[in-house]
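Figure S7 source data.
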Amino acid sequence: MDKPKCVRWAFFFLLIFMFFFILWITERTPGTYRMIPPPHQAPYTCPFQISERSITPLNNTKHLLVSAYMDQRVNGLDVRIIGIFKRDSIQKLHCVFCCAGKLSSTTPGTILQHSDNFGFPYVTTDVMCQIPQNCNATHVNLLTQPGKDRLVDQPCLPIRNKRSNGKEKEKLQFNFTVCISNLFGDYNNVLQVAQTLEMYRLLGVDRVVIYNTTCGPDLDRLLQIYSEEGFVEMVPWPIDQHLNPSRGWLFSQSGGDVHYFGQLTTLNECIYRSMDRSRYVLLNDIDEIIMPYKHNNLTSLMDVLQQQHPNKGVFLIENHIFPKKPFNESKWGPLPRWRGVPGFNILDRIYKEEPDRTIYHPHKMIVQPRMVQQTSVHEVLKMIGQMFKVPPDVCRIIHSPISTPTQRPLEQLHVDTRLRDFTEQLLPGLNKVLREAGLLT
Ligand SMILES: *[C@@H]1O[C@H](CO)[C@@H](O)[C@H](O)[C@H]1NC(C)=O
Ligand SMILES: *[C@@H]1O[C@H](CO)[C@@H](O)[C@H](O)[C@H]1NC(C)=O
Ligand SMILES: *[C@@H]1O[C@H](CO)[C@@H](O)[C@H](O)[C@H]1NC(C)=O
Ligand SMILES: *[C@@H]1O[C@H](CO)[C@@H](O)[C@H](O)[C@H]1NC(C)=O
Ligand SMILES: *[C@@H]1O[C@H](CO)[C@@H](O)[C@H](O)[C@H]1NC(C)=O
Ligand SMILES: CC(=O)N[C@H]1CO[C@H](CO)[C@@H](O)[C@@H]1O
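Tokens for the predicted 2-acetamido-2-deoxy-beta-D-glucopyranose complex:
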């Protein structure tokens, strides 16, 4: 090859390279710079930055913000911001809104600390804000001082549950949502979780919301499948990146910054997340099944209970422990195909402890989310409407904990095979999802 030809070829390849390089750059730009506002905007147009995370630190404070929801149940207040606040440094806060692209004037925030904190330094806290007049609010932010200059650095929260104005109440998307407040500690009990989720489905649950700090590798794969299908909604919950979360429920016993990986906050978050889309919300753990004993499913149970108790909005369900030992191998399992699956088989657990009703006995709850303002784990803290204790022969919790410290003698246990009524219905779906997760050979 002579020299000019070689240069011409080199130039040609350079041009092609540059063409693809430019194409690549323009493809990438919108994703990479999503958080930076477009240029040439008038001053104070907003939002500057939108938080897409489930935990957002509030600048110049020790507090964390979680989410903002429209809530006009109390006169004069419009928006509820759910947060995790450091109790010893709670200060005055001011609300500022994005009103169709324009920044509003500030309004004072009303700070409502939840009454349950179990001694921990951080507590679930709501800030209630009033929207200024003539503001079509889309986003909200909090300021420690009522000036606008500090806003550039602080990502604002989108306001959720905005009902379309004037429209009749829309039909609810779901009848029953289960809120699983936390997954943490590389939990990998796949067999139990798959059985439990399939049981929820048979009982009429439409959606399971799971707040996820960490989980084990096999459970991760299983939950990816459920979440692609839409039955499970995973909410990232990286609380360990912001605080030192406690594995216990009481500060004096286990120390740390916040109760059980922020369980009290996620339960409240889940109620507001479900408020405009689910008739009922079930607040229980992943090792618990709220089980009707006189009905085939939750729909028929709640139809009857609600008819008998029209003013009740919170239904307390008694907890019954099905200990790890002794157990009775069910005649259907453990099937050999489940041998490679991590976790235990809840169908084995047919012995149940009788709860000691002379001491405090914790309940879990089925609630109408629109009747609840603030909740704790075993009871609601603030509500509109009343509570009802559901008799245990109508509905109770089948609780299969991963371990039970004290083993009771067989004479003190009762046989309860309610779960096995569903075995035949359970197996097809269960084996299908375990196969999809690559856990059955
Ligand atoms: C408020 O803003 C939303 C989104 O920007 C828009 O869809 C809605 O029509 C507005 N409502 C009013 C009353 O202007
Ligand atoms: C909710 O339950 C009602 C009956 O109580 C039923 O008509 C409706 O289809 C159910 N909705 C969903 C989403 O399952
Ligand atoms: C619930 O059970 C009732 C009565 O057995 C049945 O008619 C209904 O179809 C069931 N609903 C669901 C959602 O499974
Ligand atoms: C749960 O969170 C961990 C840690 O962020 C992540 O690695 C995992 O993929 C998440 N699992 C699911 C199913 O979302
Ligand atoms: C398991 O259940 C069967 C049937 O109820 C019973 O015959 C058997 O004795 C039980 N085994 C144990 C170890 O409890
Ligand atoms: C001044 C200041 O602390 N700014 C921070 C506010 O918070 C965002 C993210 O939450 C940070 O990126 C800023 O540096």
